[in-house]
Amino acid sequence: MAPRIPAANLLSDREGRAIRHVYLRACESAQEARTKIAGCIGFYNSIRPHASLKVLTPDQVYFNRPPGARIGSFERTSSMHRRHFLRTAAMATAASMCVSRGGAASQADAFIEIMADEGLGEISPLLYGQFTEHIGGVIYDGVWVGEHSKIRNYHGLRAELVDHLKKIHVPIVRWPGGCFADSYNWRDGVGPLSKRPRRTNFWEVEPDAQRLHEQGPQIFESNEFGTDEFVRFCQSIGAEPYLAANVRSLPALEFDNWVEYCNSPAGSTSLADLRAEGGSPDPYKVRWWGVGNESWGCGGNFLPEDYASEFRRYSTWIPSFGVDLQLVGSGPNDNDLDWTHRFFEEIFSSSHPYDNRHFKGWSVHHYAAHGEQALRFEDSNWYQVLKECDYVEQIIEDQWSAMGQYDKEHRVRLVVDEYGPWYVEGTELDPTHIFGQQVTVRDALATALTLDAFNRHPEKVCMGTNAQLVNNINALFLCHEDKFLATPNYYVFGMYAGHQGGQALRANFSAPNIHFNYEGKSSTMWGLNGSASRKGNVITVTAVNTDVHSPKLTRLKLRGMKIQQVTGTALYAADMHAHNTFENPTAVQPTPLHADLSGGEVNVTVPAGSLVKLELTVG
Ligand code: AHR
Fold first, then answer.
1. For a Cys staple, 568 with which of 63, 496, 512, 593, CB 3.0–4.6 Å?
2. String of b and e for 228-265 (b: at least 16 CB within 10 Å)?
3. Is 407's C-beta closer than 6 angstroms to any atom of ligand 1?
4. What is the pLDDT of residues 244-303, one digit of tens each?
5. Which atom in ligand 1 lies closest to the alpha carbon of residue 473?
6. Pairing between β-strand 514-518 and β-strand 521-525 as defined by DSSP bridges
7. For residues 538 and 114, is the Cβ–Cβ distance under 8 A?
């Protein structure tokens, strides 16, 4: 049956063309395209209010159907297709949407619509993890200052860092690398301190390290911070440890032994005794283990088939000691689909299929790293970095679909365990902080939009760890000796913590796109996007306004439930380069945001270049 179009102005030619263009390109068959286009038209008829119809939907005007009525075929479209459509169609409609305020009508720039009864799945708390590597100032000078330091510490751990982390509920921390992991012998970091060997750090080869005049811990590893210290760090902030095993330069038996050291019951093995001598008779019960890191690069420079073969060897029959091990394979560099196809084919489709229920995660690393500067940038660089970070959603979609061709039941989910904007050197606090960089409000938006992308795909992404926690790429903290500050990223994780464990809700964010020029080419970036989740009677909505100059008067509607109360928080700054320094450590920090609840909907001005959180109490 042909889609019903009740009035000519309901679907302009332009929107129709956009729909056909997007779906005909995105669909496998004409039938699929027809179904989806019918769904889109249904959406316009029954869900999307129209300015020209006094902010009613066509169905309300012509057929009196209740707002939010389900349109079967549209609901079944994939989130990617729907997202593409909404963004395209939103360009034409968002600017003319109406906001009613106290009875008067005023123009809105953006629109958020949340379906309270359309859950997408539980948002794994593990999406909000952090990554720490033995590189530059992350561990030494960052997390670890040593028990005898004059800097306030908890058994050697930097106290200010621990105190801050407790407030934002970090669920998991990855360690010891990164590239460092595939050069690390875990045995070097256990047992009495006086007997731990000093070794050359993996990053000694990095030009940043080689230009240093001091031969500090960034070049020579003291092993003062090892497995026991790391697990204590995790315990002190209430996080789970996630360890990366060495596949490049240690035999598989050493992986088994490390698991045994961490997880064998008190008194059961010699390694359990060694752990007890270090102060921990009780097993650590470490669940998450990475099987190598970047095995296509620093972790061995393998071909995917060869890594698959190593993966089989390292991950088969690891002692479990009653712990439900969660093994993470070393996935692609960015969106390298060839790596994923070839690995998964070898593992799942070969004549000798692999069947290991502990294989749970496929790691993805995505950096925005194209020679940009941390503090010196123009509007176009602002948008370009955000756009590159936003590409993570495409990676999630593409990788998921590639994996599903072999792992038909999707037993393996994505673990985005390194991400962030990575700039050229020059803003590190100290020359020893390899890859250290300042963090501006732009980076806070980049982190926020990444977390929103994770939230929108709860069935696909089971873990995320930001690279890296302190004194490194996309840090939450910068510190050196006795000086310490929280960057804007720290506040992002605080603002987004409410999503952890929530039920992700389908939500549409509509606003005109941003058009910009980057390196002589015209480009676009969405204007407003975000995510929503529900826990009990609270719905958390987070959103990013990428427009660096214009605030967005935004109307939010909740379908299926009534909003009783709303509170808002925003993170932004008048200057897009704003960042926290020791002189001004709170230049960028969250502030309350006024949101108006009237007529059952929320009207809020989302500041230019900001991220916002709205907490809706629902009844
Ligand atoms: O985070 C810095 C490095 O980036 C990591 O060690 C490596 O895995 C990635 O290439």
1. 593
2. bbbbbbbebbebbbbbbbbbbebebebbebbbbbbbbe
3. no
4. 999 999 999 999 999 999 999 999 999 999 999 999 999 999 999 999 999 999 999 999
5. 1
6. antiparallel
7. no
